[in-house]
Amino acid sequence: MSDGAAIIDEIQTRTTRCTLRADGIIVQNPVPFSVNSLDDARANIAAFAKLAKGRRAPGIVDMRISFSMGRGVREYYSGPDVSACANALAFLIKSKAGSVVGNMFLGLNMPKVPTRIFTVEADAVAWLLQIDNAFKRAGMR
């Protein structure tokens, strides 16, 4: 991530580097050209949950990096394991053209947490912090 936020913790899985930023946002950076299996997806969400430390945290998935998902992975990423540890997700893409893939994911899998697509990292961070603050004000962790 390029906005200069301090990284306070990090977990590397076979297919993803998960980092916890000082502002509480967890970033998932896929390993370039990796193929996520269902076991990889479970490991990635376990890493996210460990960094979240028992709360529901906002997350960025950096989709500017080329990677793919095996059968069942997209459905898993939209399921209850994700909503148990995330309160909102921002997909960061390279360009508006990349939104086709992101919108397809959202349309087919309907995530159970607020999810948006961004091309500008600062906009994604601002939106996630707004959602996270609303959860905190409502006493929802």
Q: Would you spell out the secondary-structure blueprint of this structure?
A:
Layout: E1 7-12, E2 16-21, E3 26-30, E4 35-36, H1 38-52, E5 57-62, E6 68-69, H2 73-77, H3 80-83, E7 86-92, H4 99-109, E8 115-118, H5 121-137
Parallel strand pairs: 3-5, 4-6, 5-7, 7-8
Antiparallel strand pairs: 1-2, 2-3
Describe the fold and architecture.
The protein has helices at 38-52, 73-77, 80-83, 99-109, 121-137; strands at residues 7-12, 16-21, 26-30, 35-36, 57-62, 68-69, 86-92, 115-118. With 141 residues, the protein is α/β, with parallel strands linked by helices. It has a single domain, classed as Transcription Regulator spoIIAA, CATH 3.30.750.24. The strands form two sheets. Strands 1-2-3-5-7-8 form a six-stranded mixed β-sheet, sandwiched between helices. The chain has a two-stranded parallel ribbon with strand order 4-6. The radius of gyration is 14 Å and the shape is globular.
